[in-house]
Structures are given as structure tokens and as C-alpha cells.
Amino acid sequence: MCRWLAYTGSPILIDDLLYKPTNSLVVQSLHSRLGAEATNGDGVGVGWYDEHDPNPGLFRSIEPAWSDRNLRELATHIRTPLMLAHIRATSGSAVQQTNCHPFRHGRWLWMHNGLLAGFAAMKRDLVLAVDPELYPYIEGSTDSEVLFYLALTFGLQQDPPTAVSRAVGLVEEVARAHGIAFPVQMTVATTDGTRVWAFRYSTEGQSRSLFRNTDVAVLKAQYPENPVLHNLADSTRVVVSEPLGDLKGAWHEVPESSYLVIEAGREELTEFRPAA
């Protein structure tokens, strides 16, 4: 599958997130501890926001994260208060730039770890459910991008939890018609540049791993000698496919069938259910 990271907090160099942690996303691209595959080398992508433009910047490459020189170059020069980063292990679709995450539409970013099982059988039905005005913006061939455009069709820009719930509900409905028992496996992150939503769900109830960081103020009190922590604002929030390091008490698993909403250092955890 894939690994991903969502960050919101004080402005930080991309390099500090992608390369410097003990179990950074670049390390995970070669040696994932909790992923379905140890190696995630089928592409890399970063989407970020700054104070100059409400629409995010986007870098996507089919190079493995561990050897992408352009990624390393931009990571040491871009500072951002909010970013999504993704390393890809394809579940069958082509290794091409338009299939790399995050996906972008206007000011929105979206990335996905997991798969829609039986996507080839369901694809026609799912694509035909996408709003005709949105359909021309689908560039690649992945199930992840189709799920994004279904969520947009169902109102992602107005009410993300309801839109994702309806999109997942549609996939499960179509899957039943095709005799597919467990179609949805997902951890998803999406953002409008202000808030971040992170979802963990699978039809089978055995979702891919997802973690959130402990409150930074608590960690600073527990580890007063740790310089990395003291460079972070208390409002910093990180959601990851797997922990970026081994600091005891730094990470909490996001529960099965739930979603997080993060804004200005505050987070809310809510149960997630697909809508019929």
C-alpha cells in the first residue's frame, strides 16, 4: 500500500518532516515497519500551503522517495505551516506522475492509503457517479483519485465528513452489486489549507495503521531536554501512517472507524460510518 503524513502547526521546513525523524517518511519508503509492504517505492508527493496563495503547491514524482534529488532540494527550501506528504506502493495501477498522491482540486488536497478491492469491476459505475463538471479533472487511473472526486461530488468542500461517508457508502453499495465482500480499505487525509480531516475505516473492520501525536505541551514537560520538541509550537499536530520515532508516549493510535478534525491546534475525534 502506501504511507503518509499530515502536518499542521508552526511553519517548518519540509526537510524536518520528511528526512530528519528517526523513522521519517523517506526511511519508511525503504523500511516501513507497519505497512502492508516494507518498500514504498512507486512514487512520492508533497502538497503544501503558504501565506501567499490559498491554493497549495504540489510536487509529485515517480522516483522513489529515497533517491529523488528534486524532492531533497525543495525540502530544504520550503517552509510551510500545513502539508501532506505521501509515498506510494501501487496496488496495480500504473506508476505515473498523475497517479501519485496528493491529488489537488482548487484549494483542496487528498491522499489515501489502502485500496478499493475489485476496483476494475466497479470502476465504470463509480466514475459515472462523479459530477459531470468534475469528471474532466480526473487525470490518472487510480481508485484513490476516483474516491476523491466522488467525495467532491458529494460535497467535500462544504461538509467533508458527510461527503466522505456518502462516497464510501456508494462504493460499498456498488461492491455488493458486484459480489465484492470487503471493498474499502482506507486511511485518508484531506485539507482545505485551514483544517485537516483524517479518516480510518475499512469494510472488514481491519484498517491500515494510523497515529496522531500527543499534545506537544505534554511532551515538552515529559522531555525537557529534547531540542526537537522545543522547536515546535504547542499547536502542532501530526497524523501519520506510522510513528516517526520511538519517543515513548509520543503517539496514539487513531481508533478503528473514526475520523479526526484538526484546526488551530485543536482536534476532535468522531465515529465514522458510511452513509447508505
TrEMBL record:
Under the heading InterPro entries, the entry gives: EgtC-like, Gamma-glu_amide_hydrolase, GATase_2_dom, Ntn_hydrolases_N
- Name the Gene3D superfamilies on file: Glutamine Phosphoribosylpyrophosphate, subunit 1, domain 1
Query: Which controlled-vocabulary keywords does the entry list?
Result: Glutamine amidotransferase
Q: Which Pfam families match?
A: GATase_4
Q: Where is the Glutamine amidotransferase type-2 domain?
A: 2-276
PROSITE patterns, sorted: GATASE_TYPE_2
- Tell me what this protein is called: Class II glutamine amidotransferase
